[in-house]
Design goal:
Strand order of the largest sheet: 1-2
Shape: elongated
Number of helices: 8
Helix content: 40-55%
Structural class: alpha+beta
Length: about 170
Amino acid sequence: MWFARLYDVPRRERRTRVEEALATMGLSDVADRLVSTYSGGMVRRLELAQALVNYPLLLILDEPTLGLDPMARDSVWEHVTALRARLGMTVLLTTHYMEEADSLCGRVGLMHAGRLRAVGTPDALKAELGPAASLEDVFRHYAGAALTGNAPEQGGLRHARQSRTR
């Protein structure tokens, strides 16, 4: 309810919007509990409910399904996709899950070591590598040697290990 007020949701719509956001994220039955009693996955779903309560035109999600089990992830994406269609909402998503990017995104930007390496539709990026390529294959292709640890100046695995021991 606090987020609905913060986002200036009209008073007459607040309760409905809050109930809808909680139901969307599967939290209706625990809405009266203190957040400190929620599991990590429940907290992630609550954060999404808070972001959705004002029906944003642009929803920016930074790894929203991190730490969620596969069923909870599917549920989140099902609801975000439905809201996106209903409200005409644009979703900007960062994720390490290439299968999520492949199935959810109309356009993808692949970053590695702080640089944008490739941009395009998932299908177009995969087609560049061949008919059996996955989006993960595309990422590996554009990340190149930096994943092997052979290029510490580019943030490879060896560089990461060295920086953790210092």
